[in-house]
Specification:
Helix content: 25-40%
Strand order of the largest sheet: 7-6-3-8-10-13-12
Strand content: 15-25%
Largest sheet: 7 strands, mixed
Oligomer: single chain
Radius of gyration: 19 Å
Number of helices: 10
Structural class: alpha/beta
Amino acid sequence: MHYRAVNELVTSTYRSTAGESRSRYVHAEHKKSQWGKLNYLITGEMNKNSFDIRWKDRWSHTVNDVFNYCPMLLNYLTLSNPPVTWDHKKYGDAPNILFVGHFNSAVQSWTFPRGSDRQLHATPSNKSMDDTMVDPNLWLQFLPIVKMAWKYNTFNMHTLVPTQAEGRFRGIMHSLYKRYEIDLINCDHQYKHGRTRLNIDMLPDTLYDAVVFAGVPKQNDDDQINHHDIRGVFQPYCKPGFDIIDMNYQNTDPTKHIGGHQQDNTDYLNEVYSCRAIWDQRFRELTSEDKALEYAVLNDIVKCYKV
């Protein structure tokens, strides 16, 4: 799949108990405007703050992948909401999601070579001439920006950011969040799986229905981490029974989320890709093998856990 500046169908309601959902179009001119805005802001922040980042090359372009893949994951989040913790009469019109990303400004290249050990899936035939690809764990950090740009409003999303003392985990992403006026929530440390405590500056009268991790690594690769312990770190800031959605481009790790009840993605991802097929003719024209590869990427990235 490639980013396309054409009218795009996105989900606009969660799936009802009857199995129904609604959709709306993001129009081509709006997409072009938002694509240009993000390119402009990345370039501007790099020049203003002397960030040295390789965010595009002959074969790969971060902004293309951001607007290609992030809407599909936002469609997934839209369909799968509201969590069981959300009570419309009690809590209002939209569930609250806490977005916990992971960005390290020491990583200067947002792309990596295809065929390296960092590529986890085969290359689709329509990208066979590409020498590089954008790191999916990098474009995952743009989910809050695309949520705002594409005007997803079926859930609220607050983005967790570490304090200034941990500036290496802020960098250009923090600058971009501020330029987009993303709702930011401060915490005392950059969260990694295995951390047992995290102090978050909560908004008044706000508890979260779900926590979304994006590219969050473990503190130590050899650690064995129980799902109960991950849930325990965020329990004080969430409603009982909150969902955890762990998005990460990595090989399957049986030593993370031990004992967690992982949900099957099939129903929601099938609808996400069916929605893509409606508006994207080039996706419809892909071979069945290439479609399966594209499906596998998102299916392997998204892990949803419920109590």
